[in-house]
């Protein structure tokens, strides 16, 4: 599926993911699936980035590594730098607890915090520990464009990606059984979470190469039956609390179950179950979701530190939702929106002509 234009429901799925994360971090329930919200973000990131790379490949016959990484910098760094600065300011005036040391700040800005935090004792403004997930994503994108190019040249095939998924699962099992790594180390490490993005990448490639593979399943009953099965698998992965399972097979099953959900959400946005994802307010939260993710936990800890709201209460969820939306809207207007023309320019190959176009 390579076509220009807005991908229906993806901003809605972003919004659903950030809301899951907020509910989990608010600690309203011990079973709140905040970690699953991060997994959905990973899957969505792999799916969206690969879809954009497929469009670039289709239009120009190649992808520009340089422009890919420049787009990543323009997308990630302004909200990250502003949110880190705001967190340090809150700490400096006594509204937030903790402080950032140079080593921790460097690891967060250069995206190796997930491993730095495992070997050092990072000093943090409370709430900034969630930046580990940015490290996982950026490590993945150091490798994925090269794999993508190999796929486009048929040097490797989809079956090799499926084999890689199996290898990563086996590696997780080895780290748990052979090394005795605890669940949190598996959760934070790039080498054990690589496949959470890869499942999304594979879905995008399958959609592009086999656009009609699901034609018989797009009728209401068939689609809803597949969605019900996927939801059942996801609920099982959240309810089953065995630590070995949670550190190993859980991520694989979640990746598989997310595939049909994303597929139908994008291709059948008018289906009753997906319509809420396209409500204007939900899409707007999706647009803000990255900055909301960066800021919401700092806001929660600041609210708790100043006795405005307590963890485990509905009020901390509502206040953090409101304040993170306000902060994200401000960052979007001041930093992200002005850079959009630059990012669009970086999607066009200088001096190149789209495939199939005639010279003027």
From TrEMBL:
Residues 8-331 form the Acyltransferase domain. InterPro entries: Acyl_transf_3_dom, Acyltransferase_3. The keyword Endoplasmic reticulum does not apply. Keywords: Acyltransferase, Membrane, Transferase, Transmembrane, Transmembrane helix. GO terms for molecular function: acyltransferase activity. The chain crosses the membrane at residues 36-55, 76-96, 130-149, 161-180, 222-240, 252-273, 285-304, 316-335. Pfam families: Acyl_transf_3. This is Acyltransferase. It comes from Paracoccus maritimus.
């Amino acid at each position: 599926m390579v076509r220009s234009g807005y991908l229906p429901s993806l901003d809605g799925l972003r919004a659903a993911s950030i809301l899951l994360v907020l509910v989990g971090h608010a600690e309203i329930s011990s079973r709140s699936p905040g970690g699953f919200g991060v997994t959905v973000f990973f899957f969505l990131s792999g799916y969206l980035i690969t879809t954009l790379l497929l469009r670039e490949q289709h239009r120009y016959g190649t992808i520009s590594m340089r422009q890919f990484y420049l787009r990543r910098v323009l997308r990630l760094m302004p909200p990250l730098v502003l949110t880190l600065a705001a967190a340090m300011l809150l700490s400096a005036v006594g509204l937030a607890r903790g402080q950032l040391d140079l080593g921790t700040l460097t690891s967060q800005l250069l995206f190796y915090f997930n491993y730095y935090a495992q070997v050092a004792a990072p000093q943090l403004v409370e709430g900034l520990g969630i930046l580990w997930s940015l490290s996982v994503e950026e490590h993945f994108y150091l490798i994925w464009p090269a794999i993508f190019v190999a796929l486009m040249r048929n040097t490797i095939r989809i079956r090799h990606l499926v084999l890689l998924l199996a290898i990563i699962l086996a590696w997780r099992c080895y780290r748990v059984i052979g090394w005795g790594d605890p669940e949190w180390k598996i959760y934070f490490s790039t080498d054990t979470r690589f496949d959470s993005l890869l499942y999304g990448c594979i879905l995008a490639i399958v959609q592009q190469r086999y656009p009609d593979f699901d034609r018989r399943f797009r009728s209401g009953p068939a689609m809803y039956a597949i969605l019900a099965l996927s939801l059942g698998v996801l609920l099982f992965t959240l309810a089953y609390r065995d630590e070995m399972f949670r550190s190993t097979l859980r991520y694989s099953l979640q990746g598989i179950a997310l595939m049909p959900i994303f597929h139908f959400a994008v291709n059948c946005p008018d289906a009753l179950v997906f319509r809420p994802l396209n409500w204007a307010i939900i899409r707007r939260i999706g647009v803000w979701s990255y900055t909301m993710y960066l800021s919401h936990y700092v806001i929660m800890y600041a609210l708790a530190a100043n006795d405005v709201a307590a963890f485990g209460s509905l009020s901390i969820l509502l206040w953090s939702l409101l304040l993170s939306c306000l902060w994200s809207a401000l960052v979007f207007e001041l930093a992200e929106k002005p850079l959009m023309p630059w990012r669009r320019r970086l999607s066009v190959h200088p001096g190149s002509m789209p495939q199939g176009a005639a010279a003027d």
